[in-house]
Amino acid sequence: MVEHNTLRRPWQSLLTSPLDKFMDRSARRALYTVAMQQPPQSARRLEGRVVLVTGAANGIGRAIALACAAEGARLVVADVQTLGETTADTITQSGGEAVFVACDVSNAADVEALVEASVRRFGRLDVLVNNAGIGGDASAAHDLDLETWDRVIAVNLRGPFLCAKYALPHLMANGAGAVVNVASTFGLIGAPNAPAYCASKGGVVNLTRQLAVDYGKRGVRVNAVCPGYIDTDMGGRRASLSPEASRAANAKREANAARQPLGRQAHADEVARAVVFLASNDASFMTGTIMTVDGGCTATFNYD
Questions:
Q1: Taking the domains of the chain in order of start, what are their residue ranges?
Q2: Could you tell me if 227 and 234 are in contact, meaning their C-beta atoms sit under 8 angstroms apart?
């Protein structure tokens, strides 16, 4: 068995490296402080922390929940679909701790109850991942019905606000915490026939920055990831497609992949790894950051 104090932390090698002679006393002191705050490299990055992930029944949210559990977190799996129970079951069957709570993130009472249930179950809350989201609009603004607009904005923008509103007091109470919002590259640029989705995700991007300003000095970091084209099945609809619709969906995925500078769509676990990074101490000096996980799409003009 390796003793804890024999494990090297990420920055400790610098303290005895040739670079040390170029550092003045204050620089060495600062580096030493950072090194001592970092966990040993063999430690899991979210060990013992309580992480709440919304929209975790499938797709990116499920991948995030599983990735956080693999890093030692205790999970609150939230989703409007009871399919979220399977995500929690997968974690517990693998030796982790997880609980499923049904929640409509656009409903304030549901969200308040979700946060209360999380703290009641685990005694604390350390990380909030706002992942729940829907598409829904597929038309230009003049053809978009108001019900669709309202629903997309309610889930995609009101939802993250409500979750932050009720979770932040608990994150502040710990003296440290992290919020990671899952936005979209469509929140950074315009996309055809998606006015509600683009507006909602653009709102999440700037809500992230605003919360970072308000809560940084209160010990809470707030960042966002913006996935591009992801090979995922939002809402679990792929299995129910007709053969013709399935062929059309496959053709669309192939076209999306062709637009990527990396030549493919991302996998959900690639987004999940970015979320784990932002939630962990590895991102200890990052807040208000909008991280794209898009295969380089926003570096091109290929968004047709």
A1: 47-299
A2: no
> Looking at residue 247, what is its pLDDT?
82
Whether residue 30 has pLDDT greater than 70: no
Tokens 């899952």 belong to: 182
State yes or no: pLDDT of 137 exceeds 90.
no
CATH of segment(s) 47-299: 3.40.50.720
* Dihedral of the alpha carbons of 286, 154, 110, 271, in degrees to the nearest 10: -40
Active-site residue, from 166, 197, 215, 229: 197
Q: Give the H or E element holding residue 108.
A: helix 108-122
Encode 187-223: b = buried (16+ Cβ within 10 Å), e = exposed.
bbeebeebbbbbbbbbbbbebbeebbeebeeeebbbb
Crossing angle of the two packed helices 59-70 and 268-279, in degrees rounded to 10: 50
Quote the pLDDT of residue 36.
47
Query: Which of 236, 263, 297 has its CA nearest to residue 58?
Result: 236
What ranges make up the beta strands (E) of the chain?
A: 50-54, 74-79, 98-102, 127-130, 177-182, 220-227, 290-293
166 included as an active-site residue: no
